[in-house]
């Protein structure tokens, strides 16, 4: 996947700086807008979501023509460091002079963002394009951006009150990310994933045009997405609520070409190593990851937890379902002691949860699967984890589809229910302490926390249900951890004969599940 500038835009030194400007009433032209401060706006043109969907449908009947910047060679000089030298001028912020409005600042192009996007402000059905100019930015006198013949914008970000930080940013391909609830960036979302983790070459369609509209204290973003295989019309309502940021997304997709693997509501994150991957550690910090697990709430109501891995090779896992209730990449470990990084604060990374919404006819997402793609990495700058929903129906050229879902940027899974949560997974040598370990034996230790478990004891009839696709399971135990409110599941696995194995485990009492179902894949 393309670089996002070291988890850009979470670094505050890169994101310091601002664009500002007041949006004039719809009847004013760009000259009047410029006179009261802020970026110039082009002439007004009618706009609606229905018009955008019609445009996407028409474009899908034409060959793909990428938007190429005439300054592509010059933009190559705007590398990571040069990009960080540019800051948006606060007085040029969009909607700066409008009381209670969501203010917006814009990103310039650079080496990693050579294809420009258009950005327009929308008011009462009239759209006016923001006119680019180098005077919108503060930068050194000899900066490469000053020499561009026809510069442009790469994206934008939504500012918090007071303009000292941002909480949502759109930048690069169809990527966007929010920093709530802890004012830290981590995982990202994308408009669409094409052939991620599959045999066909991956394609990165991109948002080419944006229209921004103030609405009910938040910001609605309309976007046109285009790539060789697809054209899409998007509407994204962005709001901040207590303890989370919420985006309600509606999209209509039109396909130019067949797609081998379609990824709806794709999520992207980073997992280098954690408590389950001691052998991969080469850094002084105990754990380094933006997310530590994939959570799923199936259509039948079962809750699944899949700890993430830094696998030895590209690993794709598929979890079939019908009308899923939700899935997400979760950062569940919130203990600073487990990271020890007081500059990057991995314990504050947001969790990202997808809540499918019914279509116009009230139908759900139907049959398909949640796909988890995990790529090997040797550091923390790579987003090596991808999760998305892929419909069972094949995508053919000329077809179209509509989708609706809600993204929650939050601390953990919304509405966790009345079952215990998997809070840690550890892997070590099998057998018993003080006795030589049987050859090839591996021990798994899974900790579970939940109010439903706190009053239970060793004599309450709690058992661990453990299953493996191959090998032999021994020494299964389930017991409360002394001095904590947690329960622990332990078991040994051996006899893999050089092959990987799929594992499942959960706590139960009789026929009642007491915990999420832990799912895992282990390698010899």
Describe the structure.
There is one protein chain. A hairpin with a 5-residue loop joins β30 and β31 (486-494). The chain is 6% helix and 40% strand. It is built from 5 helices and 34 strands. By secondary structure, it is mostly beta strands. It folds into 2 domains: 12-410, Beta-galactosidase, Chain A, domain 5 (Distorted Sandwich); 421-522, Immunoglobulins (Immunoglobulin-like). It is globular. The model is unreliable at 1-36 (pLDDT under 50). The chain has a 16-stranded mixed β-sheet that branches. Strands 3, 7, 8, 9, 10, 11, 16, 21, 24 and 25 form a 10-stranded antiparallel β-sheet that branches. The protein has helices spanning 12-15, 30-35, 49-59, 72-75, 80-84, and strands spanning 45-46, 87-88, 104-108, 118-123, 126-129, 137-138, 153-159, 166-171, 175-178, 188-190, 193-194, 206-215, 218-226, 230-241, 244-255, 262-269, 271-273, 288-289, 293-297, 303-307, 315-322, 326-330, 351-356, 367-374, 385-391, 400-410, 421-429, 442-449, 463-468, 472-480, 486-494, 501-509, 512-513, 517-522.
Molecular shape: globular
CATH class of the largest domain: Mainly Beta
Helical residue percent? under 10%
In DSSP terms (H or I, runs of 4 or more residues), the helix count works out at: 5
Distance between the termini: 28 Å
- Describe the largest sheet: 16 strands, mixed
Q: Which fold name fills CATH's third level, the topology of the largest domain?
A: Beta-galactosidase, Chain A, domain 5
CATH architecture of the largest domain: Distorted Sandwich
- Number of domain modules: 2
Class based on secondary structure composition and strand pairing: mainly beta
Arithmetic mean of pLDDT:
90
Beta fraction: 35-45%
Alpha-carbon Rg, integer? 25 Å
| Low-pLDDT segments, ≥5 res | 1-36
Query: How many E-type strands?
Result: 34
């Amino acid at each position: 996947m393309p670089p996002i500038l070291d988890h850009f835009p979470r670094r505050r030194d890169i994101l310091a700086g601002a664009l500002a400007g007041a949006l004039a009433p719809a009847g004013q032209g760009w000259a009047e807008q410029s006179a009261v401060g802020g970026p110039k706006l082009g002439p007004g043109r009618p706009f609606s979501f229905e018009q955008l969907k019609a445009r996407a449908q028409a474009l899908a009947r034409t060959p793909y023509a990428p938007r190429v910047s005439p300054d592509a060679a010059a933009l190559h000089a705007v590398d990571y460091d040069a990009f960080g030298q540019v800051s948006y001028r606060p007085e040029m912020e969009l909607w700066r002079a409008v009381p209670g409005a969501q203010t917006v600042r814009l990103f310039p192009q650079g080496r990693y963002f050579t294809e420009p996007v258009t950005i327009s402000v929308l008011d009462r059905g009239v759209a006016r394009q923001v006119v680019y100019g180098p005077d919108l930015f503060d930068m050194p006198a000899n900066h490469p951006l000053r020499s561009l013949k026809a510069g442009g914008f790469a994206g934008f970000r939504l500012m918090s009150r007071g303009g000292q930080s941002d909480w949502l940013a759109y930048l690069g391909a169809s990527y966007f990310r929010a920093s709530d609830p802890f004012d830290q960036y981590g995982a990202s979302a994308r408009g669409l994933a094409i052939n991620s983790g599959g045999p066909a070459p991956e394609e990165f369609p991109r948002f080419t045009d944006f229209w921004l509209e103030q609405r009910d204290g938040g910001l609605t973003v309309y976007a046109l997405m285009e790539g060789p295989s697809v054209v899409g019309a998007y509407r994204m309502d962005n709001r901040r609520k207590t303890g989370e940021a919420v985006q309600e997304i509606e999209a209509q997709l039109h396909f130019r070409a067949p797609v081998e693997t379609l990824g709806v509501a794709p999520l992207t994150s980073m997992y280098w190593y954690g408590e389950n991957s001691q052998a991969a550690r080469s850094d002084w910090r105990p754990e380094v990851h933006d997310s530590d697990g994939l959570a799923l709430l199936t259509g039948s109501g079962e809750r699944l937890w899949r700890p993430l891995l830094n696998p030895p090779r590209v690993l794709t896992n598929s979890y079939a379902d019908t009308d899923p209730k939700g899935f997400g990449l979760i950062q569940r470990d919130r203990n600073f002691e487990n990271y020890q990084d007081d500059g990057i604060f991995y314990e504050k990374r947001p969790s990202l949860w997808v809540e499918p919404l019914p279509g116009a006819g009230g139908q759900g997402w139907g049959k398909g699967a949640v796909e988890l793609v995990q790529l090997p990495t040797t550091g923390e700058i790579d987003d090596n984890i991808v999760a998305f929903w892929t419909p069972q129906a094949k995508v053919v050229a000329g077809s179209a589809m509509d989708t609706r879902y809600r993204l929650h940027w939050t601390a953990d899974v919304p509405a966790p229910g009345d079952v215990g949560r998997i809070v840690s997974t550890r892997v070590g040598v099998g057998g018993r302490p003080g006795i030589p370990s049987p050859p090839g034996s591996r021990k798994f230790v899974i900790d579970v926390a939940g109010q439903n478990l706190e009053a239970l004891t060793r004599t309450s009839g709690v058992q661990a249900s453990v299953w493996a696709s191959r090998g032999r399971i021994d020494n299964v135990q389930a017991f409360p951890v002394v001095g904590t409110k947690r329960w622990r599941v332990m078991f040994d696995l051996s006899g893999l004969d050089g092959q990987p194995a799929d594992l499942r485990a959960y706590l139960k009492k009789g026929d009642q599940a007491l915990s999420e179902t832990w799912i895992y894949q282990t390698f010899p």
